[in-house]
């Protein structure tokens, strides 16, 4: 069946294209789900804790991008032992920077999926901070800063106000009456 014919055939069915409000099950969906996307919670202004968590995640992403670019520049212009390894490391760090940057964007837009990548980023930062603290020289202050940022971001991300602003329900909690 041609795509246009399929659309026309669906349009002729009664109830096609309308959400299933008031009916126990939707036509065409055996599980009774609707074709509407779950709206993001827009009840009031964004909590400051959520904004700060997004800012910290974005800061980590920006530092990773800067570190990756630095590795790339040194790989091309410096005298590395293995140029291919230096370039691959730089590209890898830049690609890994996408995780906290996308999580920060999602947190600012109040998307519930964004808390997971943000928490994972902070959990991965803690062992790196520990290793920096055990090193010598300039790495020690960097480890302190990274540990403080990671712990602060974790506290902000698991805060009940942040969880509520993202529309995340805890296990066993009933769904809000206004949401479907």
From TrEMBL:
Keyword Plastid attached: no
Keyword annotations from UniProtKB, A to Z: Membrane, Transmembrane, Transmembrane helix
Aminoacyl-tRNA synthetase is among the record's keywords: no
Compositionally skewed regions (Low complexity) per UniProt: 16-30
Region (Disordered): 13-46
Transmembrane segments: 50-73, 85-104, 116-133, 139-159
Origin: domain of life: Bacteria
Name of the protein in question: Integral membrane protein
Record lineage: Bacteria, Bacillati, Actinomycetota, Actinomycetes, Kitasatosporales
